[in-house]
Amino acid sequence: MKKVDKKVADQYFKIRTTMIIIFLAIGFSVSFGVAAFADVIHETGATIMGMPAHYYMGAQGAVVTFVILLFLNAIISDRVDKKFGIDDKQNEQISGSGSGH
């Protein structure tokens, strides 16, 4: 198994941790921010696809946002992995998977 320099590993984990914190903050703000400001949003008369904006975000918008965040996390994580030389094909070759284990 290939050893990784501690400095590179620390940088990798710092980027991944930052990504997780950002995605959780967005998810938290979408879920609880809309509920906290529901009255204000309702008073503005904002609508999304004909429904009141605060109701839509509570019922479907938060779920849709989470799904989008999951896809973004996967795409960005793959790019970060490639940047640091983490590749599934290379790992399969190193571990010897597919050789009948």
Automatic annotation (TrEMBL):
Regions that span the bilayer: 20-41, 53-76
Keywords: Membrane, Transmembrane, Transmembrane helix
Organism superkingdom: Bacteria
InterPro entries: Na_symporter_ssu (IPR019886)
Domain Sodium symporter small subunit stretches: 10-87
Pfam families in the cross-refs: DUF4212 (PF13937)
Protein name as it appears in the record: Sodium/substrate symporter small subunit
